[in-house]
Amino acid sequence: MRNIINLFFKLIYQYSFKIRFFIAKKVIFFIFKIKKNSLFFKNLSILINNFYKDGFVKIDSYYSDREIEYLNNISNQVLNDTKNANNQLDIEKVDGSIKIKHLTKTYKEFKRFTNDSIMQVFSIIFNFKHISPDVILNISHDGNFYENLIPGVCTKNIADTPHIDAKDGFKRYLKGFIILENLSQENGATKIIPKSSENKKIINLLSLKEKSDQLKNEIKKIKNISKDVSLTGKKGDLVLFDSRNIHWAGNLNRGMRKLLWVYF
Ligand SMILES: [Fe+2]
Prior knowledge:
The protein is of the alpha+beta class. Helix content is 41%, strand content 19%. Strands 1-8-5-10-4-3-2 form a seven-stranded antiparallel beta sheet. It has a three-stranded antiparallel beta sheet with strand order 7-6-9, with no helix packed on it. A hairpin with a 2-residue loop joins strand 2 and strand 3. The two termini are 32 Å apart.
């Protein structure tokens, strides 16, 4: 009985999400029609449309050069603080790569960049409530950067296996990243299979309790037959995506991948 109730709630969640996004799309477009001169609503309408279509959106030059310089400076400070044995930072490290999580607890400055109106509109459509996102610094390199702080060469990026992220094992998970150094296929851009979150088999598997092996196999199968998109970009671009779509970190062949992840 509990399983049936569970399944019922998951189905409601699945459809209410689509309806919510559809309504938001219409409302923002309607406001844009009334306020013909509003560049904000025009852009928002385009962004929501693209996100609805593909499951991700890239916003070019979202942050100015000065803002990126500022974010790079704080990020380097964070990295320096990892040397301090008393730091309270949550660190995940592999050769040539580091992830430092929950940054807004210690570095409040990040909040100014991640609580703006565009991000919050997306967050509210997604989660149906205001969320102050978690910020994570993620750096991987080929051995030529940050020798003392991130030793080694990144031959295997963290999260390089195709996977999906789902809140509570099922719900869609809005994630984004701010590009701090130009990002190409060479230096490990994230890859995504657009709209794979709509795959019926995946949705059914997410509804099951014991799902891990079957789900992994299904993800592999879909990855092998689908076209992926590389989320490349320039310093200052912002990417937002529904991380219940299949995605993974690309291989780093040369250079450095430096991102600020934003998890809603
Ligand atoms: Fe992920």
